[in-house]
Design a protein that fits this description.
Helices cover 29% and strands 24% of the residues. It is of the alpha+beta class.
């Protein structure tokens, strides 16, 4: 069981800067070949799994070029236990590792992205909520598409289809929770958030057609640090972070609001770039 020592919550608005298509299955009553996914009330939403996927992909591409950082998805020859599960389990059985020894090997051998997003050997530290619509035109566009023969570069006869698109300018409510991050974990999350704030995000299908572009706006961060000494003389006050967290009802009541998100992102990205593998201090203060 993993105790909670540090926690971060990031909220904001995902704003579409182009149309978006996230498929909702083939069977539908709306008379289209490819409908978008909707809630039972008929509103569009973005599944948390879809948002997690683009967030992880963004980080994996960037991690590969950061010195002393690694990801098993893109670095050839990096033997992360996730990609060598059978070999790792054989070593574990032969050496008869106890829980402490297993944790030590995982911390040393799991790549940075697996340590953050989880693997068959460790739980994820980051969690994504479904993104429900805040504002939209309450109308779904329908667009036509055709299959193209790559040799002749012409439309294939009889392969015309249509698909649904959520219109540009629609906004969705975002929330990401990060628990017990290392300095590397927090830095990588800040890298991903900064890319999305900069409008470098893309989500959903048919992105090569220009769909799925978005940016994150109005982002707010909240942090909780239980690693500092508690106010033992009077634990039932707002100066005690644990008491404040346990009795609070809202994020503002439970946690400390980050005063300057732009500086927060830059600070933790800077820490990430200065870290040396194997010399990480997991108690970075914000």
């Amino acid at each position: 069981m993993r105790e909670m020592h540090r926690k971060y919550v990031f909220t904001g608005t995902l704003e579409l800067t182009s149309g978006m298509h996230i498929g909702g299955g083939e069977s539908n009553l709306r008379g289209t070949d490819s409908p978008v996914i909707l809630t039972p009330e008929g509103d569009p939403f973005i599944p948390g799994s879809s948002f997690k996927g683009v967030f992880r992909s963004m980080i994996e591409r960037i991690v590969a070029v950061i010195p002393n950082r690694n990801t098993c998805s893109l670095i050839l020859g990096y033997d992360c236990p996730t990609t060598k599960q059978e070999d790792f389990n054989d070593r574990r059985r032969v050496s008869n590792w106890n829980e402490t020894e297993l944790a030590r090997h995982l911390k040393r051998e799991l790549c940075d992205t697996c340590q953050l997003f989880g693997s068959p050997f460790s739980a994820s530290k980051i969690f994504f909520s479904d993104l429900y619509v805040e504002e939209w035109a309450e109308a779904i566009q329908r667009r036509d598409g055709v299959a193209i023969d790559r040799d002749s570069e012409k439309a294939v006869e009889g392969f015309k289809y249509d698909f649904e698109v959520i219109s540009v300018g629609s906004t969705f409510k975002m929330q990401i929770v990060l628990e017990n991050p290392s300095d590397t974990d927090l830095g990588l999350v800040c890298v991903g958030l900064n890319e999305f704030v900069s409008g470098m995000g893309g989500i959903g299908g048919m992105r090569s057609r220009g769909l799925g572009n978005f940016k994150i706006t109005e982002m707010i961060g909240y942090e909780l640090d239980l690693t500092t000494p508690q106010t033992l003389t009077d634990p039932q006050t707002d100066t005690n972070p644990l008491h404040r967290y346990l009795v609070g009802k809202t994020l503002e009541e439970k946690m400390t609001k980050v005063s300057d998100m732009d500086r927060f992102l830059k600070e933790h990205i800077g820490v990430l770039l200065t870290l040396v593998s194997g010399e990480e201090n997991a108690q970075t203060t914000s």
